[in-house]
Specification:
The chain has six helices and 16 strands. By secondary structure, it is an alpha/beta fold. The chain has one domain: 4-Layer Sandwich (Metallo-beta-lactamase, Chain A). Helix 4 packs parallel to helix 5. The longest helix has 11 residues. The model has no long low-confidence stretch (mean pLDDT about 100).
């Protein structure tokens, strides 16, 4: 399995048989190296409904036929837009042909702003534990620091954790270091930083301070083989 980082919180997972995108915020994300008109996906996993995470989901799913797996309210809303969705909720897990998805808690908000400015409630935000080929990755989603992250680390053998460090909207670098220690992944990768001025952070400096496992600030497009 190969996982790659594509700016903000965008992660691509290639299992060898399937390609998945997590939170594909591409258009409007100057750091992203993906093209929403050509990127392939068999499935799209969404942590929550904010526009900088839903991103290009509708366009990609309509073009590729990708299944969109998301928290229930968000999945129901996106399903009205002519794409195939599968609703889930926190604590729930499901085996798909592309791997196992489990939603975890995250402490954040979750609403989608439509083109006309309407705010659509997106249900509860979450993190995603994804397992394929015997390997588990953890996309923590947008969240504050909370102690159950330690429980998730104890319950799962996590290869790579994608942890927000941007501060302001999510946990900042100091709290994210505690999260990395609790999650106990073999590799901790910072996400959700430098997209906007208010979340500018030094990802390399953060990665160098990770004490449990390895901290690695992936460049856009860089991948980790599992």
């Amino acid at each position: 399995m190969k996982v790659s980082y594509h700016g903000h919180s965008v992660v691509k997972v290639e299992t060898g048989k399937h390609t998945l995108l997590i939170d594909p915020f591409i258009t409007g994300n100057e750091a992203c190296d993906l093209d929403p008109n050509t990127v392939e996906a068999d499935a799209i996993l969404l942590t929550h409904a904010h526009n900088d995470h839903v991103g290009d989901t509708l366009e990609i799913a309509k073009r590729t036929g990708a299944l969109v797996v998301a928290p229930n309210e968000l999945a129901v809303y996106l399903g009205t837009k002519g794409i195939e969705t599968h609703p889930m909720h926190i604590g729930g897990s499901r085996e798909f042909d592309f791997g196992k998805v489990k939603f975890t808690q995250a402490f954040h908000g979750s609403s989608y702003t439509d083109d006309d400015g309407s705010i659509i409630y997106g249900g509860m935000p979450g993190g995603i534990l994804f397992t394929a080929n015997g390997k588990t990755i953890y996309h923590v989603g947008d969240t504050a620091l909370f102690t159950d992250l330690k429980m998730y680390g104890e319950m799962n053998d996590i290869e790579v954790a994608f942890i927000p460090i941007g501060d302001n909207f999510t946990m900042g670098p100091e709290d994210a270091l505690i999260a990395a220690d609790w999650i106990n992944a073999k590799v901790s990768v910072p996400v959700h930083y430098n997209t906007f001025p208010v979340i500018e952070q030094d990802a390399d400096a953060w990665a160098s301070k990770v004490k449990t496992g390895e901290g690695r600030a992936l460049k856009v497009g860089e991948s980790i083989e599992l």
